[in-house]
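DM from R.C. (forwarded with permission)

"hey, sorry to bug you on a friday — could you get me a structure for this? deadline for the figure draft is monday and I only need the backbone to look sensible"
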Amino acid sequence: QVQVVESGGGLVQAGGSLRLSCTASGISFSIRSMGWYRQAPGKERELVAVIFSGDSTNYGDSVKGRFTISRANAKNTVYLQMNSLNPEDTAVYYCNIQSTMSPFRTQTYWGRGTQVIVSS
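My reply, with the result:
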């Protein structure tokens, strides 16, 4: 079965850093992208960062210059390095994977999420 597992969340003081990781298994088709979304209490889910199969990246405006997305050589693990954290970054962070079988079929997989709390 397909599994998407995040880790690395926790409690950190403002100005500190955390590194999230996400490992996917059981996906049989080409991965188009791997990325991170987050959702804070009372707010909508928002894009944090995405990395595509060609290694291009997109970042949400609120994290540009502070967060960096990357992936391992095995191509089944994605990381999110978060620096200069502030309380507004407090949220549940979800790993997202887009897998493409053909131009007519794209499947989306989500992890359960990992909690990040930034204290002031």
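R.C.: lifesaver. The mean pLDDT is 94.
me: no worries. The radius of gyration is 14 Å.
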